[in-house]
Every structure is written in structure tokens, then in C-alpha cells.
Specification:
Shape: globular
Strand content: 5-15%
Oligomer: single chain
Distance between the termini: 22 Å
Radius of gyration: 20 Å
Order of helices and strands: HHEEHHHHEE
Helix content: 40-55%
Length: 185
């Protein structure tokens, strides 16, 4: 097995190599099943009681090869999503050239502009952390499909989301892969 650091260096040196390995699968909308497995390391954050599953935190370790492929596909999907109107033009974070710092600068500029016009300003901030973990893959993939996104990208996204499994790693845990029914690991 090739160490993760080697794959990272290979991807930096020859960025098209990994996608060329996987292009036959990707062009048919298939995320390789071998890349859908992960190890979940269970952490106990020192809660006063461990009566609830929410008392434990899981850090999921996905194969580097899978992370690289996901990043490659995400960059293609992001471009398409902007073109077909799947992203709000004011969407920030996780977008190339649209960092959180740029969002803060834009917000500050808009507030100052409105205040100079003697207008009242109010803001609503929402934290949607963990929201993606509850998305139904069929619903998620139906939207880009209806917008005319290339069928192989929609199929790849569905394949990426479906059939995932995780092996929880903690003392005394059985070495069994469990299906992941929501989220992406």
C-alpha cells in the first residue's frame, strides 16, 4: 500500500495522473467502491456522562486517494454549479476566490453603504453546521439533474454519496464496517 504522503506528492507533481487512473470510472459516473470506506476514530471529550451517543466525537479518516479525487470533482462541480445557477451569487466559503474574509469585507462594505444612505441595517446569521449530514442523496442529485448538469457528474455525485461505510476504531470495538446512511463520512 502506498503511503498517503506519497500520493499527496504525486498529485502535486503530476495533478492529472490520479484522474487519468480513474477517468474510466468517473466518465461513467462511478465513485470507486474501494474509496467509500473509512475509519472513524472515537474520541471521548471528557463529558460528565456518557449516556448519549452525542457524548462521543468521531473523527473520520478517509483515504488520501479519495480526498484527492473528491477535490478534483468538486472543482468541476463548483464551476458547473455557478454556470447553471445552483449557487447563490453571494455564496462564500468552500468556493475558489470566495473566502470567509472576503465575505466579511463584503458585509462591512454593504453595511457602511446602507448606513451612509441613512438606512437601518439588520443581519441574520445562521449556523448550518452538520446540515449536509441530513441531506437525502436522491433529492440533492435531482436538483442539478433538473438544471441540465451533465448526467455523468450527477451520477458520480450520487455514487459518491451512496454505499459508504465506516469502521469505528476504539478499544473493544468489533472490526466491522457499518453502513453510513446519511452524510458523506
Amino acid at each position: 500500500m502506498t503511503p498517503n504522503s506519497v500520493w499527496k506528492n504525486i498529485n502535486k507533481a503530476v495533478p492529472d495522473l490520479i484522474i487519468s487512473f480513474l477517468s474510466p470510472l468517473v466518465s461513467h459516473g462511478c465513485h470507486p467502491p474501494s474509496l467509500k470506506r473509512a475509519d472513524g476514530i472515537v474520541l471521548e471529550p471528557g463529558k460528565p456522562s456518557y449516556d448519549s451517543p452525542s457524548c462521543f466525537r468521531v473523527i473520520v479518516l478517509v483515504q488520501t486517494f479519495s480526498k484527492i479525487l473528491e477535490r478534483i470533482m468538486n472543482s468541476g462541480l463548483s464551476c458547473v454549479a455557478r454556470v447553471v445557477g445552483l449557487l447563490n451569487p453571494h455564496q462564500y466559503g468552500s468556493q475558489a476566490g470566495l473566502s470567509v474574509a472576503e465575505a466579511c469585507n463584503t458585509l462591512s462594505h454593504e453595511v457602511r453603504t446602507l448606513q451612509m444612505d441613512k438606512r437601518k441595517v439588520s443581519m441574520l446569521f445562521l449556523d448550518i453546521k452538520g446540515g449536509f449530514d441530513n441531506v437525502n442523496p436522491s433529492s440533492l442529485c435531482g436538483i442539478p439533474s433538473a438544471k441540465g448538469v451533465n448526467p455523468y457528474l450527477v451520477a458520480w455525485t450520487m455514487s459518491f454519496l451512496m454505499g459508504r461505510s465506516c469502521h469505528l476504531v476504539f478499544q473493544g470495538a468489533p472490526k466491522v464496517l457499518a453502513p453510513v446512511s446519511v452524510g458523506t463520512l
